[in-house]
Amino acid sequence: MKGRSKAACIFNRRATGLFAICLAGALLCLFMAAELVAETQGGLVCENPVFDFGIAGPGDEITHVFWLANNSQQPVIITRIVAPCETALDQKPEEPVAPGFSFPLGLRIKAEETPGHFARRIIIHYGGQASQELALEIKGQVKTGIVLIPGSIVLKAGDGVDEQASGSSLAVSLDADELFLHRVSTQVDWLSVSFTQEAFRGRRAYRVFVSLGPDAPEGQFMETVTLHTGSQSRPRLDIVVRGEVGR
Question: What's residue 29's pLDDT?
Fold first, then answer.
């Protein structure tokens, strides 16, 4: 009896070990198969799926081109594109997208008439070995009135970083009335300011340049540059200028 029990115990251990080896092998095969399927299927990808246009005026037309690619090993067919009603598609592939091929998707979308945060999603449905989808987004701010882009300027001088001793900001009116800039001024003589006229989406705009002079005091600072405009609502605008001067 003892011999039989010992033999049965050895048999059970061998059976258990064999079962464990078979189970591990099966799991490994399943894992490799899943990896192979995922690699084979792939799909459409976009390196930059979110486009932030910054600032737009009410009703402005926003245009952008997304570049998409098929990273699978099978042709991909775009079945439909779900986009807001105010979106127009300028470029899209009509034929199946070959493996490894990149293509542009051009969009035109109209900004809302009311100010505020703007965000729109575009969903691309496509088929290969399985039905999949890719989400794209266009976002930004809709504003009225006179705006500064950017709203502040950061300067830094000294320690061999002379190329950062100047900066600029763009002033533009997003109202119906055009912007007229008469002059710019500052309270300190070690800030040099000037401006030139340019266009921003078909509107008159002014580029204001600010640079640090050689007499700038050492250390951190925060000053303002004032823009004198012809607008009754905002006759003057202040650009915050901050930075650091090292020796």
Answer: 46
Q: Which residues of the chain have pLDDT under 50?
A: 1-2, 6-11, 15, 19, 22-23, 26-40, 161
**CATH number, position 183:** 2.60.40.10
pTM over 0.85: no
Residues 6+ apart with CB under 8 A from 170: 148, 149, 198, 200, 205, 206, 207, 208
Rounded CA gap, 161 and 237, in Å?
Answer: 29
Rounded alpha-carbon distances, angstroms, from residue 123 to 78, 80, 83, 92, 96:
11, 9, 7, 13, 18
First to last CA, the chain: 95
The H or E element that residue 37 is part of is helix 2-41
Same structural domain, 203 and 136: no
What the block records as the tokens of 183 is 């002059």
Nearest to 61 by CA among 103, 137, 105, 113: 113
In-domain check, residue 161: yes
Q: What's the maximum distance between 2 C-alpha atoms anywhere in the chain?
A: 111
Q: Tell whether 74 and 122 lie within a shared domain.
A: yes
Q: Which domain range does residue 136 map to?
A: 44-142
94-98: long-range contacts, CB 8 A cutoff, minimum separation 24: 97/44, 97/68, 97/70, 97/126, 98/70
Q: What's the rounded Cα separation, in Å, for the pair 58 and 43?
A: 36
CB 57 within 8 A of CB 144: yes
